Amino acid sequence: MWIEREISKYLSDIAASFPVVVMVGPRQVGKTSVLERTFASHTYVSLDVAAHAEMAETRPDDFLRLHPPPLILDEIQYAPAFFRQIKTFVDQHRPHNGLFILSGSQNFMLMKNVADSRAGRAALIPFSGLAGHEWQAAYPSAGTEQWLEFLWRGGFPRLWDDPHHPVSRDRWYQGYIATYLERDIRNLLQVGNLRDFERFLRACAARCAQTLNMAEIGRDVGISSTTARQWISVLQASNQIILLEPYYKSLGKRLAKSPKLYFTDTGLASFLMGFQSAGSLWNSPSAGALWENYVVSQWQKWRDWRQPSASLWYWRDQGGNEVDLLIETDNRLTAIECKLAERPGSNDLRGLARLEDFYGSQAMAHSFIACTTRQPYNLTDRVTARNGWTTWDLPSISSEKTG
């Protein structure tokens, strides 16, 4: 079953404006399928095939003669030297656009090479699993239980290929983690014991939606805080986690400085946490954290695909008052608090009220509580409760239509 991806409708226009398009995201989120469907006339070559990568890396002229542009190159990080050839080819064939469509799953190996050749030549597109509104379009009659299943199962498209004969979620994630450890981690980092790294991965999942404490997580896994910091960088570079930085503006001395940790996919996080059914997840003390993780990851997709100029943050003061997500657009803040409840209470407004007191109402566009209500309603004239399964229109950028 093909689920239409929102980014598809923008890709052709982007490729018409840039000679190189780079799509970066985790493995198995559908990058290849989207690119092949969108650019059907391009030649497709995967550098995951060792012979292709070796030729692109060591004999780039021969490679381009054999595979002339327009060209889709998958897993481009396996031939880092080929970026020089791309730069030379693009410069020789200006003003032609859409020559190279690149994809990869390892951010810092990619970005280290893209940076030198990117200026004016390449558009960078972060890409991840299914957004809530994409899944909703495929399952328009889905009720509450199906939405709970979506968060637990996750947004990897393969898990939704056949709704009548679904893939075993647990076996799929077992294979995914094994492949990730063997292929990405061995390439990104010389980890002496992959079991230690898998334990680290599970320890991170247990801390999703929490402030990142390197010393604590290192102590629990039995590694140094320096190693923990290095391994966190690997998770971020391979697009498995999101680090949400704290917001501060001139009054920063009074605010938190450590990022909060989220997974790009809640299905992977819930698997690593050991939940074998959606019901066991929703009846657990971790349900609120996974709901927050889900909401934050949806707005991350929104920023990456629709509003790349927006900045995402969280906020906390020294008194422990917190707002889960701040979206900064046009020098104003939209605040979103995540609550796993159908009818949030007055206590849920405390962090939002403190934030507005701290920066002043003129700094705020509006505040929301992302909850499970079926219909939006106003809690106050400054705070609206909204269903958090999908993103929505923001007051500060009303011209943008969100899902």
Could you please describe the fold and organization of this structure?
The structure is a single chain. The strands form three sheets. A six-stranded mixed beta sheet has the order 9-10-11-12-14-13, with helices on both faces. It has helices at 8-17, 31-38, 50-58, 60-66, 82-92, 107-118, 132-138, 144-153, 169-188, 194-206, 214-221, 225-237, 266-272, 278-282, 287-305, 350-359; strands at 20-24, 43-46, 71-74, 100-104, 122-126, 210-211, 241-244, 260-263, 311-316, 322-329, 332-338, 364-371, 377-378, 383-387. It has three domains: 8-126, P-loop containing nucleotide triphosphate hydrolases (Rossmann fold, 3-Layer(aba) Sandwich), CATH 3.40.50; 132-286, Orthogonal Bundle (Arc Repressor Mutant, subunit A); 296-397, 3-Layer(aba) Sandwich (Trna Endonuclease, Chain: A, domain 1). The protein has 16 helices and 14 strands. Strand 10 (322-329) and strand 11 (332-338) form a beta hairpin. With 403 residues, it is of the alpha/beta class. Helices cover 42% and strands 17% of the residues. Mean pLDDT is 90; it is low at 398-403.
Number of helices: 16
User: Fraction of residues in helices?
Assistant: 40-55%
The first-to-last residue Cα distance is: 21 Å
Reported CATH architecture of the largest domain? Orthogonal Bundle
What is the CATH topology assignment of the largest domain? Arc Repressor Mutant, subunit A
CATH superfamily of the largest domain: Winged helix-like DNA-binding domain superfamily/Winged helix DNA-binding domain
